[in-house]
Amino acid sequence: MEPVGTVRCPEGTYEFTFVTPDNKKLKTGEFIYYLLDGKKVLCRVIKRKPLRIYPDTFLSHPKVEPSKIMRAVGIENETQLFEVKACIMGYYDEKLGFINPRIPPPPGEKVYIAEGEEIQKTLMKKKIYEKGSLHVGYLLNRDEDVPVVLDASLVASEHICILASTGSGKSYLSGVIAEEFMKPYNRGALLILDPHGEYHTLKEIEGIDEFLDGNYKPRVRIFGKNDVKIRLCELDYTELVGILPNLSDKMEAMLKNAYEILPEKFTSEDLINAILEVDSEKSYTSKALIWRIKRYIQGMDVIDDYVHLELVDILKPGQLSVIQLYEMSDLEQQILVSVLLNRVLNARIAAEKGKESNEILEYPVFIIVEEAHRFASRDAKSYDVMRTILSEGRKFGVGVCLISQRPSKIDSDILSQCMTQVVMRIVNPADQDNIKSSVESIGKDLLDELPGLTKGQAIVAGVAVNAPLMIRVRERLTTHGGISRDSPSEWIKWVSLNESETKKRIVKQKNAKLFWDE
Questions:
Q1: Which of 99, 116, 108 is nearest to 39 (CA)?
Q2: Residues 67 and 184 placed together within one structural domain of the fold
Q3: Looking at residues 176-185, what average pLDDT do you find?
Q4: Of the candidates 177, 96, 171, which has an alpha carbon nearest to the alpha carbon of residue 136?
Q5: Residue 180: inside a domain
C-alpha cells in the first residue's frame, strides 16, 4: 500500500495532523492508519484545509482557469497540498481486543488509506452473517461496500436508541434491525410497539428465503386494537394507581383498602363494590374514585374483565410480534405500554431468580418502541416502567430500542441508558443539545455532521462497535411501510377518475332524457 501523507505534528494525545497532496480520497470521515511496532493504528479524518492555494489574482477571472494563468507566468507545478487532522482510534489485538495506544505518531511517519478488511477487523465486534451479528449498512465514505455490523448481543442486552428528524429514515433503519434479529443466525424474540401502523409489512419475512434455515422459519404476528386486551385482575395495586389520574391521598388509601379485600380474579364491578364496602357512607372520595374507574378502566378498550393476551403468545424466540397502537388514544397507548412492559420485566425477573409467578419468560426479549418520546417523557404514565427497564432490564434480559424524532422530550436519564446510539439527520437545536448531553460516545466532530446527513445516513456509536462510524443504511428485504405519500400523483389520479365518472354520469343522464322524450 502506497502512503498518502506524512505526519506533520501531534496535537495532544488523540489527534495529529499530516500533509497530503490527495484531493479526492481523504474525505472527512475517511479511515487511515499509521504503523506502530508493526500494528496498524486506525484513525479517522476529522478536518482538512489547503496549505497551498492560488493567489487571489489568479481567481479574479471566473472564465479563465487558474492553471492556465500559472502556466502563462511560467509556473508548471500546480500540485495542491492539504493539511489533514485525524483522531486516533486504535488497533485490534487478538488477545487484548481493541486498544487505543495513546501515543500519536512522530513527525515524518507515513500515513496510509485503511483497507476495508482492516476496518472491519478493528472497529466491528462481529463479522457479517455470523451468529449474533446485525448487518445494518455500509461505511458512508467508501466507494466499495464495507459492511457495518453491530453486535446483536450488546444491542439486545444494553439497549439502543435511534434518533432522527422526520423523514431521515429512522423507521426504515429499525425495520432493517428487525430483519436482522429474525435472521437464522439470531432467531430473536422480538416485539414492536407501532403507533403509526408502519411495520405490518414485516409479515413478508415469512416468505423470503434469507430468513429460512432448515427447520427454522420465523413467524410474524400482527396484533390490532381488538387483539390486545389486558385483564383487570392481572394489574397490581401500583398499576391501578398509575392508570387512575389525579388521585388524592384519601382516594389512594381507599383504593388500597378495597384492593386488599378483592378476590384473586375480579372485575371492574367487583372493584366498585369493594370501594362501596370500605366506604359505606358513600362519601365524595368514593364517588370521585368510582367515577375514575368508570372513565379510565371501564371506558377503555384495552382493559377487559375477562380477556387477556398472554406474554408467551407475543414473545417467543423466532417470532416477531407487532402491536399496532394507532387506533388507540394516547392515554390507552401509555397504559398499554406501561402494563405490558411491567409484565415483561416481572416475567423475566421471575425466570432469572426462580420465583413463582403466573407469567414466566425463560428467554431474553427485545422490544422496539416507536415514537419513544410519547412513553419516556416525565409526564407519561409509562415513564416509571420505562426508566426501570432501561436501568435494570439488562440484568434480566429485557432489551429496548427507543426510536424518536424528538429526543429532547425523552428524559435524559432514560436516554443515557442506551449504550448503543444511532443518530441520523437532526436540525432542531434543542434536540442537538439534548443528544450532545446524553450521548457521550459520539465526538464533537461527528456531532457537527448531523445537519448535513441525508436520508438513510447515520452515525453509529456505543458498545455494539469499537468506535463511532458513519454509515449508509442497507436496503431492506421487506417493503417499507412508512413511505411518504406522493400527494400530486394521488391528486392527479383522483381528478382523472372523477372526470371519467362525471362523463359517464352525463352520458347516462342524456340517454335517460332521450328515453323519456321518445
A1: 99
A2: no
A3: 97
A4: 177
A5: yes
